[in-house]
Design a protein that fits this description.
This protein has 9 helices and 12 strands. It is an alpha/beta fold and about 300 residues long.
């Protein structure tokens, strides 16, 4: 078993099960999609049991729907508890979003209205989850494609206040920050400077699809140059403050062979090794024009979570 203070990891995907077991890659941890392992038996669980004998595991969910108006799904939380007991993850994460309402799962990670009412609602639900799982919940910042007209808080102010009120931890997805910054026309670096560093449990790096006037967080491309530049700037600042944060590379579609992902992750290792002496030259903050007006008037803007 690797050290329990991991630095670099990959998302565990079925395409790579056998390559991992055969090659024993130099990785500190793997991240699983929780929902893929909620059944007690079957090949996925058998593979996971073999892999976790050698590597620490973290759990990353997509179905908690912490921002939905409905109560938390008790059956889902029970299944999570069972998986936690079996896998013994280093931490458990999900997304700051909602995935459906009125009994309908839309199978998407939908943005929240950033208001005091929404904040109060989510604070209560985060506290319920943490009491149930007996551990801090780690929440990932979203990638977004529209903003609510009713917003009274910025995303980062919403996240900072949520963290202060609940003691939850953060999964900082730098790709999501960049995607949202381009789509809405704000500065990714200004956002990243306001993240409470002491609360960051993990970093995600991933790729997006560029549609010219907007970006989509698709996880089917390598990490982009602007995201690498933001990551380098963050790591340099964190190292100067004595903070080291585990970094994980995600790929969920167009998944290449395992060696290709290991080579890509090696860039994160190299950045970390040289970050202390790195200058800010070449760092990119969001400067592209937003694809939408500041206040969207479409019907999507008025939906509630």
């Amino acid at each position: 078993m690797r050290a329990t203070q991991p630095q670099f990891g990959l998302g565990l995907r079925p395409n790579h099960y056998h390559a991992i077991l055969e090659s024993q890659p130099d990785l500190d941890f793997f991240e699983i999609i929780s929902e893929n392992y909620l059944l007690a038996g079957g090949k996925p669980m058998a593979m996971l049991d073999q892999i976790r004998a050698d590597y620490p595991i973290v759990m990353h969910g997509v179905s908690l729907s912490i921002g939905a108006p409905a109560p938390l799904d008790d059956a889902y939380l029970t299944a999570l508890e069972t998986l936690i007991e079996r896998v013994e993850p280093l931490w458990v994460s999900d997304h700051l979003c909602w995935t459906g309402a009125h009994g309908h799962n839309l199978h998407d990670l939908l943005p929240l209205p950033y208001t005091e009412d929404s904040l109060t609602h989510i604070v209560s639900k985060v506290q319920q989850v943490q009491d149930r799982l007996k551990r801090p919940l780690v929440l990932e910042n979203p990638s977004t494609y529209f903003e609510f007209a009713c917003n009274t808080l910025s995303e980062i102010d919403f996240i900072r206040t949520l963290q202060q009120r609940t003691g939850c931890e953060l999964l900082l997805d730098i790709n999501n920050v960049y995607v949202s910054s381009v789509n809405h026309g704000w500065s990714a670096w200004d956002y990243l400077q306001q993240v409470p560093v002491q609360a960051i449990r993990q970093i995600h790096l991933a790729g997006y699809t560029d549609h010219g006037d907007h970006l989509i967080d698709t996880h089917d491309h390598p990490v982009s140059a602007p995201v690498w530049a933001l990551y380098a700037r963050c790591v340099s600042a964190w190292q100067a403050a004595g903070k080291s944060i585990p970094t994980l590379l995600e790929r969920d579609d167009a998944i290449p062979p395992l060696p290709d992902l290991l080579n890509e992750l090696a860039q994160a290792r190299a950045i970390t090794q040289t970050a202390g002496a790195a200058a800010d030259t070449g760092v990119v903050s969001a400067s592209r024009q937003p694809p939408y007006a500041a206040n969207i008037t479409s019907s999507a803007q008025t939906q509630t979570a």
